[in-house]
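re: ur question from yesterday

yeah so i grabbed the chain u mentioned. its 195 aa long if i counted rite. heres the sequnce exactly as i have it in my notes:
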Amino acid sequence: MKSLICTIVIILSVAQASAQSPQSPLAPPKLPAPAPGSVKLKVGDKAPDFGLPNADGKLVLLGDYISRSPVVLVFYRGFWCGACTQQLTKLAQDYDKIKQAGAELIAISVDEQSYAWSMGQTTGAKFDILSDSEKKTIISYGILNATEHGGIAHPSIFLVDKEGRIRFMHIGKDPTDRPSDETILEEIKKVTGVK
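ran it thru and got these structure tokens back, copy pasting raw so excuse formatting
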């Protein structure tokens, strides 16, 4: 009888705790879904700093990059995305032009490190491709597309100057909505003053 009462008390306690908690502690976390078309950041805002592993597992810090030059952040959907592979391949071909214009380039997706490495090999990228598998940076930039593939980045470009301010941004409305490399180069030159 005593054990039956203890069992009932435990069951009631668990039921009450479950009723107060909106999500089971064993369930994967629910990702916040931004309102369609909404972006937390705007031109002139301070870019959220981050540290993410590159394809080789080395921690890359945004702050280290912007201390040397402006940085173009390219958020892409994933290794499986044909438009993303095309974009990164073209950026890899234009990387020397981006460097000559005075900027650096970093690409970021939710892909695990091994896929970031594969994307680098596939596209011929000489720039860092980072893994944001926990989606923290993508969320901090307000570009999480929580409705696809368990949460991926909207295809996006942010140009961050040496003071850490966003000077240009483009958030894609669909998988193919991306600025041209020429547009990115023009925006870099506006920041760096290179002709």
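noticed a couple things. The first strand starts at residue 51 and ends at 53. also The radius of gyration is 21 Å.
anyway ttyl
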